[in-house]
Amino acid sequence: MHIGVDLGGTKTEAVCLDADSGAELFRHRVPSPRGDYRATVGAIAALVTLAEDTLSQKGTVGVGIPGTVSADTGLVKNANSTWLNGQPLDKDLAAALGRPVRVENDANCFALSEAVDGAGKGKSAVFAVIIGTGCGAGIAVDGRILGGPNRIAGEWGHNPLPAPRFYRENAPERPDIFGAGASVNPTYAAKPRPVYFTDDGDWNEYPGTPCYCGKRGCLETWISGTGLENDYARVTGEALSTHAVIDGARKGEPRAAAALERYVNRLARALAEVINILDPDVIVLGGGMSNVAELYDRVPHAWEAHVFSDVCHTPLVPARHGDSSGVRGAAWLWNEK
């Protein structure tokens, strides 16, 4: 059997899958230790032991984390659970459990799960996006994670927002950068051109807000659920939860509807950039924002203005395994050769 563990910010969950059928044999979750690396290692090891004692059999172990393991040092990097950074997590878990342990980015685990037996099953290239309090993505090609030499393939959330809109009153006119008066490629001739300057201060997207990574204007700051909340508060001066903004938009409240429209437009630009580079067979959406049903129609309609093609056949679909996809993908890490 394959054991998967998903280390989250608030919970750590384990699942056991039958190695052949993928049937779920066991599931259990515990609160995640905060700020304590040794306690984190202990919690993961205890979950694995509980699973094996319950089922009276041993299994392979894969762990999904909110970061990645450096190809150069073998240490965790880029984790927003910062106490993991600089630690040899895979080696420490292997020592605790007495066997090799595979550790992978949680978004990559999500992509693998959806590629193996989820919404991307049978597809060659799967781009899988997790959008909740943060924003991340993973890429699976032919049922295998695409990691890259730097182990950062799919780190989409820390790219800048494409074609940011500058409020005309505080943005310099730069036709050399923004293409004012430039000829239009025939591919785009029938489409509205992206608007870079705006007279509507609500749409000002430059320079963007600071991100925890040290940059400004990262996609995560715009298209996470937190980004939607922050944008609504920036424009209206009123704090509302993501759920309340979306509920207000559905009820026709003008300020909430405008915030959701801005969100859809930004997500569409961000995903159009992925389509132009990777041209995936499917884009799978997970995380809390994947429950916003309006996105599956409105975002593909909006990205058509930015995709470098006369038509765009890329589907945007919800994750088949929902919140369970990441932990299932951690278990499937041992399906990869």
Structure explained in plain terms:
The two termini are 16 Å apart. The chain contains ten helices and 14 strands. The longest helix has 25 residues, at 254-278. It has two domains: 2-118 and 323-335, 2-Layer Sandwich (Nucleotidyltransferase, domain 5); 156-319, ATPase, nucleotide binding domain (Nucleotidyltransferase, domain 5, 2-Layer Sandwich). The strands form four sheets. It has a five-stranded mixed sheet. The chain has a five-stranded mixed sheet with strand order 10-9-8-13-14, sandwiched between helices. A two-stranded antiparallel sheet has the order 5-6. It has helices spanning 37-55, 89-97, 106-117, 175-178, 219-223, 225-236, 242-250, 254-278, 295-303, 325-331, and strands at 2-7, 11-17, 24-31, 60-65, 68-69, 76-77, 101-105, 125-131, 135-141, 144-145, 166-167, 197-198, 282-286, 316-318. By secondary structure, it is of the alpha/beta class. Residues 171-189 have low confidence and may be disordered. Helix 3 packs across helix 10 (325-331).
